[in-house]
Amino acid sequence: MSEWISTTEAAQRIGVGSVTIRNGIQAAQLPARREGPIWLVDASALDRYRRSLAPQAGRPRKQHPITPTGHRAMSMLREWGTGGAAEELALVLEVNAGNVRKGLAIAEKLHLVSREGSQWSLTTGGQRWLTEHSVEVAA
User: Phi first, then psi: what are they for 127, rounded to 5°?
Assistant: First the structure.
């Protein structure tokens, strides 16, 4: 005899959202029955359904945590050859200084830039990283 579970429990068991379970029911890919307002899913079909799920299409995930603004700020540091303040970089890049500080703080945690006071500079690791992740910098 099959075990029938709620869509929420089914989603938790296979590590997906409830919407994914409801989509599977609607597409007749997952056996289910309705009891009043509640859909119940055949628990024995969950593993098969999970294996049938293709990776979600859409925007690819970032390969690195550096923000686009941080990336552009690092590129400017490389171009300038010396340290610069976040406010100066923000003026040149025409973005908010807070976004520059955030991007550089992330890069600092990854040892790609270093800071002395308010002056930022690119590390050797940052030079290497920029070479591997080149991007056009708008001046």
Answer: -60, -45
Give yes or no for residue 137 having a pLDDT over 60: no
Torsion of CA 21, 27, 32, 36, to 10 degrees: 90
Is 118 within the bounds of a domain?
yes
Convert the pLDDT of each residue in 97-109 to its tens digit.
Answer: 888 888 888 889 8
Q: Which domain holds residue 45?
A: 4-52
CATH number for the domain including 107? Answer: 1.10.10.10
Q: Is the pLDDT of residue 21 over 90?
A: yes
Q: Which of 62, 63, 64, 66 is nearest to 108 (CA)?
A: 66
* Nearest-angstrom CA–CA distance, 118 and 18: 47
CB-CB contact of 113 with 125 (8 Å): no
Answer yes or no: is 62 within a domain: no
